[in-house]
């Protein structure tokens, strides 16, 4: 009797894993299909966790993603992948079981970067916010009415959490070593707008603040944060919003180009071996995948955005079913959105490397504007604060490699404000940005 083929194994049962599995079925794959997930939950949506779930408007278990295609899959949930044997084509799980595969899709995503245990990270009252259980636990702690909430890290999650907590009427201090919120994503020129939103919402923003350690009481519960300058901040609830690390630890001995920064892939989403060659049987998609983005001169990037997880998973699935001579490159314009302080923020493109920024619609003072980022005279990203009408046009200009800024004759464009984006703290700060140039279009 001919043994049943091993089939396709998808490691990672979140958005990218689910949509990748669905794309395999839609693409005609009818063989064995297994989805492996470290969490016990079926795939769920993460964006509502830092908004609706924390606010109490949505239960954590109501975030389950719709399954759009009949998967006819075997689910292995609640037991993470711990090792990959490429020679044997097997994946070992934490429960000791071993899964064979013909082809493998790595979609393990990323994990919240925890606060180190040696400097207080194991104290009760210190939370991260990445998964469904994190959100449920944190919501319960917020309902209890903490007296001093400290959020460490003013990135997207930190700012969204601060906005939500102020809506709940809770006291919030947001500490970050940079001079403005979202400085790494938007620069200080635009980040200063978020600083104003924090202030007006009643949150305390502490720029240039480095938290070194947490201290607890006799019961092992956090009571304060010790800062680099020797001072302290009282805190009985802490949200460590320190970013994420890619879930690649299980690939440590697999002889792949994998590290906490991601699993490196080629343009077709095939994982690269340590010697740089593409693995014909292993693909990656979503937050864990580090891939060369053609629009930005082949720069290797990990894109932690909802749209990329869906599109890259579908593209990887397509290539998994195609022959070796039909491996198509993945092209994608990164985009994400955030809702905070009553503002809908949308970004298309990558701001990294920008040397200029121009406000081409609206104004920062009104907190309704569209800004374009440029590098060496070319438009590379566009950012909307409640001003998304022109965003598709700028996305097209970015894809076309248009000059910076690309649209200068819009009827509702009274002036353009140009500045240094302020990605380096030495070049600009939220409180004292460099002079800006304003001219009529």
TrEMBL record:
Among the entry's GO cellular component annotations, what is one? cytoplasm
Identify the residues that the record assigns to the FAD/NAD(P)-binding domain, covering every copy: 8-313
Q: Which UniProt keywords apply?
A: FAD, Flavoprotein, Oxidoreductase
Which GO terms fall under molecular function for this chain's record? oxidoreductase activity, acting on NAD(P)H
Q: Where are the transmembrane segments?
A: none
The protein's matches in InterPro entries, at most eight in alphabetical order, are given as: FAD-oxidoreductase/Apoptosis, FAD/NAD-bd_sf, FAD/NAD-binding_dom, FAD/NAD-linked_Rdtase_dimer_sf, Reductase_C
- The segment(s) forming the Reductase C-terminal domain are 336-402
Superkingdom of this protein's organism: Bacteria
**Span list, region Disordered:** 415-441
Q: Which cofactor does it need?
A: FAD
Coiled-coil regions, chain positions: none
- Report biased composition (Low complexity) as residue ranges: 424-435
What the entry lists under SUPFAM superfamilies is as follows: FAD/NAD(P)-binding domain, FAD/NAD-linked reductases, dimerisation (C-terminal) domain
- Please give the name of this protein: Reductase C-terminal
Q: Which organism is it from?
A: Methylobacterium phyllostachyos
